[in-house]
Amino acid sequence: MSDPVFLITGASSGIGAATARLASQAGYRVVLAARSTEPLEQLAAELGGAERALAVRCDVTEWDQQQAMVQSALEQYGRLDVAFANAGFGAARGFLKETPEYWRSMVLTNVYGAALTIRATITALKDSRGHLLLTGSLAGRRALPGSLYSATKFAVTAMGEAARLELNDTGVRVTLIEPGMVDTPFFEKPGEGRLAAEDVARTVMFAVSQPPHVDVNEILVRPTAQSS
User: Fold this and answer.
1) Taking Cα atoms as reference points, which of 88, 99, 76, 92 lies closest to residue 1?
2) Which residue among the candidates 28, 102, 112, 149 is catalytic per the annotation?
3) Structure pTM?
4) Is residue 226 part of a domain?
5) How many folded domains does the chain comprise?
6) Which domain holds residue 124?
7) Triad 146, 134, 152: Cα angle to 5°
8) For position 63, which CATH number holds?
9) What is the pLDDT of residues 51-65, one digit of tens each?
């Protein structure tokens, strides 16, 4: 099969799952990666089973699992056209909130995990002249009071530009997606005035659907109800 292949980390829910559905509708075969296997397998079945969607358990903070994820994608589908480093989670604001152990897990997932996804996919993306995307945040453009999460997303912002500079002239495009407030499992209660995960997924698909000579490097998307 020649249909392009779209890999997504953090694909079990939220923005990742919504992007997988839209990518599948657009004709991509999808590789779904996350630590939680049951929702991944359910989503893969929904999107057409092994011929169209591959579920791979992957803790993005583990290099061997990232390598195995990409190898599984190449063995199953023979190529990789889009990689979306989307895995991540937030924390309560305040430097006396959360535990140091929670902080460590968040920093490793949001920063180190994203860097490992770039490292794991970069060769295959060069081969396909593909597209790398990272989930940043509005919080990665302006500091939030007491927010270590904001600091991790500043790091992702820098990582996206660093990757773009390294990949310039290889044919690989790089896009940083920066959502404002989104209704995702980050939040215990749904909130009015937030983006739906599908809104962000449409933004992702806008970037990847551009002609090969168009490199949309950064997209900041807020709900209209969010003023800052």
Assistant:
1) 76
2) 149
3) 0.92
4) no
5) 1
6) 5-221
7) 20
8) 3.40.50.720
9) 999 999 999 999 999
